[in-house]
Amino acid sequence: MAGRAAGNRPGNLPAELTSFVGRRRELAEIKRLLTTTRLLTLTGSGGVGKTRLAARAAADLARSLPEGAWLVSLAPIADPLLVTRAVFDALGLQDVSARWSLSALSDYLRGKRLLLVLDNCEHLLDAAASLAGTLLRACPELQVLATSRQALGMAGEVRFRVPPLSLPDAGASLSPGQAAAFDAVALLAERAAAVQPGFRVDDANAGSALRLCTRLDGLPLALELAAVRLEGLTVDQLLAGLDRDLPAPAGALRGTEDRQRTMEATLDWSYSLLGEPQQRLWTWLSVFAGGFDERAAAAVCSGLVPEEGLPEAIAALVESSILQHDQAVRPSRYSMLETVRQHGRRKLRELGQELSLQTRHRDWILQLARSAFNFDRAQLDGLQVIHRERDNIWSAMDFCRRQPGQAAAGQEICSALTNYWLSRGPLKDVRWYLESLLPLAEPDTAFRARCLTGVALLSNALDDAATARAMAQEALAIADRLADPEIAGWAAGSLLFAAFVLAEPDGVADLSRLMIDAGKSTGNRGMVAVAMHYTCLNWLGQGRLDQAIEVGEAGVAMCREAGELFMRGTLLNSLAEARRGRGELAEAEALAREGVTCKHTFEDHRGVATLIETLAWIASDRRDAGRAATLLGCAQGLRDSMAIPILAPFVPRHQACERRTRELTGDASFDQAFRNGAAMRVEDAVGYALGRAKPRPGGARAASPTTLSRRELEIARLVAEGLTNREIASRLFISDRTVETHITNMLNKLGVGSRTQLARWVASETT
After folding, report:
1. What is the pLDDT of residues 75-133, one digit of tens each?
2. What stretch of H or E contains 39?
3. d(CA 448, CA 440)
4. Mean per-residue pLDDT for 558-587?
5. 6 falls in which pLDDT band (50, 70, 90)?
């Protein structure tokens, strides 16, 4: 699973943007309950702090769990069918297999001791309950902590209603110190001190502070929204304003519905205190799912707010606690708590602007998709942008599917991101999306044909060549009638790949020529590169090694010249296998290693697994049996993490390699080396495949007290090898400036002052 960094338990729990105040009793009770139950649901009104409490409890519990704690945010998910995908995403699993399903996820998690936090389940209760029930039945070591305004309603579920922050009994006579010991007052004081330095609860304001906290029912979000107003007001002035604008309390005994009304009234009050531009911006920004950066806000709100005034307007919403600002990522991102976002969305509907803003959001995503994967050096930057905005992408695609007349835009977004889907997934969900558009398409239209070519391509990727062939044949027939070379080219490509998998060589040359000509005539270098890859594969399958090498070298040269990585890594594998077939093992190994670097840079784990498998075959040919067995294990471990098989045409070669290697090592030695390889993390497997690291017995890495990211660890190892910044940048396909930034960050994190000391740290970590 992704998310494992040196010195940390695995997990993806977010860093806290503000301090956590109080809740000792609740935390203790949640931890106690999780010693007696495997499914605990935190319920309560919006704004009561369910998510924050669950995340803190999970962080505390993660220390005792070998596989850590993982937060699955369901707030951005609108379609129940995508709930399982959210778990894949949270766990860092690349959903690139037809075999990935809820049952396959159960198989993957079986035997793992971890805590899964399902956050914001209330709008997806049935889907969340089905997911939790299936996983808990299949995975005896798994525990689920859910947050929802309603319980999941499952057998065995234990429910914990999250109370408001603690308050004293009405009429209690307390000193300022005693009042500040209650959680609600402590939170108010701490947040107030952030905007009014020196603020504290004293004799002059203690009574008013208590009344304010009581007036807001001790709701954390309501207190946060109120506290920011103390920058220019006294507690008495703020309380007077609340008494004027908020409905009077219903009585002494207040339940969940009353607290929900208090929260909604507080949000209305916060809205009324904003200037009109900030009010509008709150509603407009509620259209984002999963957060946004300043450029995204500018794109969606272009023309609605003066561009020069947008940063100030966003800052005002941050200061008002409407937006949360995460500066730990680059570029920094903004988000809203789900209760705040839903309130803004409701206002947007009331203003009659929801459709307009959803369309603007769709247009931004469409432009992002069109520009993300050009055939050039900016490809990796595009991938990173798309990965950051994946929740927004799915939101826009869902809008296109549901909104009449928008399906073609949804298809264009989906198809433009093909390389992202192929490297990261979720392939089944993407295929389902395109299939769901087919009933909306008229016969013999370009829209229908493009949907068909997308389904065909994804079917091939999901090891369903028969479906791919049928879809591609229909698309090609439509393309012929429309005289559309681009559609014809992509349809021919799916037929080429299906021909390789199904071992049907007839017509391969014609299909290859059609696709290459289509790519050239439309100026689509990506199509030409894919055509060369598919052609190379087919010539390999037919044993025509000289022709495979010729077309493979031409494709690799084109990719290198453009600075393209994704297809370059794919072509390098086919070319390496062709060189291996001619006995040119040194050349084959160099090509495959270059391919591993390309695919690893793209975080395409399936591509990495394929290239490591090729390196295993090369090692076996050299009679380097121990290395071959370890590499076979590395490749299998990666495939297992994605639930993908070896592509059918390569199975005989894999079996021959394993048989030959076992003969050289003996079964016991082979099995041990294979297990060592299978247990390696992706980074270690890549390092071993590239000859930079030795295999770790058992695959376990000792914990380190310092957290470095995957990229930082990779750069640190290259520094230890003596590479310069420019050499590191060249090897990893990143800029010199990026390398310099990473090294500076590492020196600061580790408390060392030079590259030499950094290299010593690397040496100590690998011994």
Report:
1. 888 888 888 888 988 888 877 766 657 777 888 888 889 999 999 999 899 999 999 99
2. strand 39-43
3. 8
4. 95
5. very low
CA 176 to chain centre: 46
The confidence score (pLDDT) of residue 251 equals 43
161 within 8 A of 43, measured Cβ to Cβ: yes
Q: Average pLDDT in the 381-406 region?
A: 93
pLDDT at 450: 97
* Distance separating alpha carbons of residues 245 and 227, to the nearest angstrom: 16
DSSP letter at 302? B
Contacts of 725 (CB under 8 A, 6+ apart): 736, 739, 740, 743
CA angle 338, 343, 345 (to 5 degrees): 90
Given this model, what pLDDT does residue 175 score?
79
The residue ranking higher by pLDDT, 676 or 258, is 676
Q: Could you count the other beta carbons within 10 Å of the beta carbon of residue 217?
A: 24
Q: How many CB atoms lie within 10 A of CB 90?
A: 22
196 contacts 241 by C-beta, under 8 angstroms? no
Work out the mean pLDDT of the chain and round it to a whole number: 87
The model carries a pTM of: 0.78
Residue 561, amino acid? E
Give the tokens for residue 457: 């391509």
| Token output for 502 | 């199904």
Distance of alpha carbon 424 from alpha carbon 175, whole angstroms: 58
- Identify which of 574, 631, 637, 569 has the alpha carbon closest to the alpha carbon of residue 604: 569
Alpha-carbon distances of 491 from 426, 451, 528, rounded to whole Å: 22, 11, 13
Backbone angles phi, psi at 695, to 5 degrees: -65, 145
Question: Backbone phi, then psi, for 106, in 5-degree steps?
Answer: -60, -45
The yes-or-no verdict on residue 254 having pLDDT over 70 is no
Q: Which of 172-186, 234-248, 258-272, 415-429 has the highest mean pLDDT?
A: 415-429
Structure-block tokens of residue 640: 């297992």
- Helix intervals (H) in 624-735: 625-642, 651-665, 667-678, 682-689, 710-720, 725-732
Taking each helix axis from N to C end, the angle separating 206-215 and 183-195, rounded to the nearest 10 degrees, works out to: 110
Single-letter amino acid code for the residue at 505: P
Q: How many residues does the chain have?
A: 767
E-strand spans in 56-191?
69-73, 114-119, 142-148, 158-161
The two three-digit tokens of residue 297, written as one number: 């806000």
Return the higher-pLDDT residue of 413 and 1: 413
CB 642 within 8 A of CB 605: yes
Q: Using the Cα atoms of residue 531, residue 537, residue 539 and residue 544 in order, give the sign of their dihedral.
A: positive
CA distance linking residue 746 with residue 752, whole number of Å? 8
Give the three-state DSSP class for 383: helix
Question: At residue 709, what are phi and psi to the nearest 5 degrees?
Answer: -75, 170
DSSP 485-549: HHHHHHHHHHHHHHHHHTT--TTHHHHHHHHHHHHHHHT-HHHHHHHHHHHHHHHHHTT-HHHHH
Of 406, 333, 412, 404, nearest to 368 by C-alpha is 412
User: What DSSP designation does 694 have?
Assistant: P
Higher pLDDT: 581 or 233? It is 581
**Which conformational region is residue 6 in: left (phi greater than 0), alpha (psi within -120 to 50 degrees), or beta?**
beta
Q: Which of 454-458, 585-589, 717-721 has the lowest mean pLDDT?
A: 717-721
Name the nearest CA neighbour of 87 among 78, 79, 95. 95
Residue 291 CA: distances (Å) to CA of 297, 302, 364: 10, 18, 14
Extract the tokens encoding 123: 């709008």
What are the Cα distances from residue 727, in Å, to 152, 233, 654, 719, 731? Answer: 54, 57, 35, 10, 6
Which residue has 């390092």 as its token pair?
687
* Radius of gyration from C-alpha coordinates of the chain: 29
